[in-house]
């Protein structure tokens, strides 16, 4: 920033501090953040659709054979961008935001603003079977984070504004402001108070208005409710809830299984090649897997399953409804595979919209099976298509309220509130009991970076180990005599604990002052007793790289110790005292609760 501009900006900040209250400024910022996040979402959507429209004629002209190479071309462009411009591996959008809120005080890099706007359209536009919501939320959150840094906003408020950005992006894409607020609360575990409610609401409204301004009254799903909830269909909605619950477990397990397979391919080029070919084959056999899949959902809602399926190698058999059901069920199975393959191969995209596509297919399958069993039952296939989406969202990302309100808002189908609640609740309960963590949170839980609505766990997750490690302990060598230890370390230390280190600075034991107190004044022992004869193992050891603060607290509880040594990269780093840790915990809790 040039000096003159910096000087003017400093004057503006001083004027702001004097004339605008912090609460008012946050509300203004939430409007701005919502607008910018909405603009990001619109840009992302339009650039992706532009690429898809350019390629559409070629796909039709080649009789779908172009599907074989398009994903590989898109992934190659992404690979080149990441290698020469981004210069670090792409991260899962929502998981990286949660990690930033937990461990980096809500700070996101400047390149996180523009990288999703480049990599996601290239991935999805060329056929990658992922969604745009995650990249939109990541880019919008990065805008919010960097604006917060520019205006010297504190970490707690920065967290709120990042959540506002996610609400603005979701409200813009789905035109569903209430679901956008609930998503921020459920996924980012934000406390919904009056202090946070108003900024989230303002950001959502701003995001929706931005979408209307750029896209007009364009609606995501062309759906009009023809049948409301019927009590006699309750058992079928329960059945759908069970089905979407197990489908959510399959989706999550398949995600991690395929990613683990791609991790075995060390070279990004091999990942690109294997993934691109695999996606191409799937697209040729099942065209609806191309891109996000909103067109597929709309066709199912319109009752046109043949248009939803597109041109497939099985067109000669689609007069048989059971062949159609089998093909739709195939989309349910392969959407998770195609999505994860895209991500594993190096593509950029989210998992939220693929869950909607998979849920819509499964809901439609369940309705078609019920209607064609010949038992005299009849249910609305469009209603089941909608409610299937809510079941998958609730199960896969553990966000049942988001699932309920999102589907209700984007379709105007509030008359389906009861079946939405039934299906989403059952799916969530089944998945939550089977899987402790979601696609977003599993890896974060391993490193202790997971945010939680449990205030104790949340505060422990926000604490940094570096803030509580103490290094003012005098180390001693195992070959030191008692006299050398007393003169060189004990007499110069304010602590009653001494780490014993070998020549490689590795911890091999500890000595507590109480261990040597009876012999401290017996000078005859000064030259005959060595440190190695007096030292003993610590009651527990903290490993810097693998232990999170929750595990550290448990080690204190189990060992009964007041000080525990920290080992970093195999070497002694310092000690953590229980008193300092509890003091830091109390301060963090007070700050978090305000």
UniProtKB/TrEMBL annotation:
| Gene3D superfamilies in the record | CBS-domain (3.10.580.10), Clc chloride channel (1.10.3080.10)
Q: How does it sit in the membrane?
A: Multi-pass membrane protein
Membrane-spanning ranges: 20-44, 64-82, 113-137, 157-185, 197-215, 235-258, 270-290, 321-338, 345-366, 386-407, 414-431
Q: SUPFAM superfamilies in the record, alphabetically?
A: CBS-domain pair (SSF54631), Clc chloride channel (SSF81340)
What subcellular compartments does it reside in? Answer: Membrane
**Where does the UniProt entry say this protein principally localizes?**
membrane
Q: Spell out the protein name for this chain.
A: Chloride channel protein
What species does this protein belong to? Flagellimonas okinawensis
């Amino acid at each position: 920033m040039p000096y003159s501009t910096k000087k003017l900006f400093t004057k503006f900040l001083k004027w702001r501090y004097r004339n605008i209250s912090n609460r008012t400024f946050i509300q203004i910022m939430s409007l701005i953040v919502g607008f910018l996040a909405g603009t990001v979402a619109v840009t992302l959507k339009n650039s992706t659709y532009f690429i898809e429209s350019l390629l559409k004629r070629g796909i039709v002209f080649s009789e779908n054979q172009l599907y074989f190479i398009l994903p590989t071309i898109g992934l190659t462009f992404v690979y080149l961008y990441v290698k020469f411009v981004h210069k670090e591996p792409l991260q899962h959008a929502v998981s990286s935001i949660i990690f930033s809120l937990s461990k980096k005080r809500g700070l996101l890099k400047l390149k996180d603003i523009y990288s999703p706007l480049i990599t996601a359209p290239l991935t999805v536009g060329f056929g990658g079977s992922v969604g745009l919501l995650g990249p939109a939320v990541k880019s919008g959150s990065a805008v919010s984070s960097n604006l917060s840094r520019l205006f010297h906003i504190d970490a707690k408020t920065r967290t709120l504004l990042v959540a506002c950005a996610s609400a603005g992006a979701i409200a813009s894409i789905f035109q569903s402001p209430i679901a956008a607020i609930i998503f921020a609360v459920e996924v980012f575990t934000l406390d919904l108070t009056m202090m946070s409610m108003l900024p989230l609401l303002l950001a959502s409204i701003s995001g929706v208005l931005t979408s209307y301004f750029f896209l007009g009254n364009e609606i995501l799903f062309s759906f009009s409710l023809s049948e409301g909830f019927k009590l006699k269909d309750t058992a079928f909605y329960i059945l759908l809830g069970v089905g979407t619950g197990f489908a959510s477990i399959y989706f999550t397990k398949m995600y991690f299984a395929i990613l683990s397979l791609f991790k075995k391919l060390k070279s990004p080029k091999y990942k690109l090649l294997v993934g691109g070919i695999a996606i191409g084959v799937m697209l040729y056999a099942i065209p609806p897997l191309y891109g996000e899949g909103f067109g597929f959902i709309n066709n199912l809602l319109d009752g046109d399953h043949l248009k939803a399926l597109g041109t497939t190698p099985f067109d000669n058999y689609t007069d048989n409804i059971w062949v159609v059901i089998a093909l739709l069920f195939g989309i349910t199975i392969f959407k998770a595979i195609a999505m994860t393959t895209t991500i594993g191969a190096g593509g950029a995209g989210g998992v939220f919209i693929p869950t909607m596509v998979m849920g819509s297919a499964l809901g439609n399958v369940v309705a078609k099976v019920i209607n064609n069993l010949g038992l005299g039952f009849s249910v609305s296939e469009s209603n089941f298509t909608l409610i299937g989406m809510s079941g998958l969202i609730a199960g896969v990302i553990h966000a049942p309220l988001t699932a309920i309100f999102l589907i209700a808002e984007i379709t105007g189908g509030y008359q389906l509130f009861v079946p939405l609640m039934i299906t989403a609740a059952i799916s969530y309960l089944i998945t939550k009991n089977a899987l402790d963590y979601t696609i977003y949170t599993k890896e974060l839980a391993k490193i202790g970076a997971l945010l939680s609505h449990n205030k104790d766990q949340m505060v422990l997750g926000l604490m940094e180990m570096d803030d509580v490690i103490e290094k003012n302990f005098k180390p001693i060598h195992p070959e030191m005599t008692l006299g050398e230890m007393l003169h060189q370390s004990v007499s110069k230390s304010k602590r009653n604990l001494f780490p014993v280190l070998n020549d490689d600075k590795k911890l091999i034991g500890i000595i507590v002052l109480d261990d040597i107190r009876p012999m401290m004044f017996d000078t005859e022992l000064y030259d005959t007793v060595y440190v190695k004869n007096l030292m003993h193992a610590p009651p527990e050891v903290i490993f810097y790289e693998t232990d999170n603060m929750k595990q550290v607290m448990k080690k204190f509880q189990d060992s009964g110790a007041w000080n525990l040594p920290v080992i970093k990269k195999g070497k002694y780093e310092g000690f953590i005292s229980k008193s300092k840790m509890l003091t830091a915990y109390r301060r963090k809790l007070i700050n978090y609760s305000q």
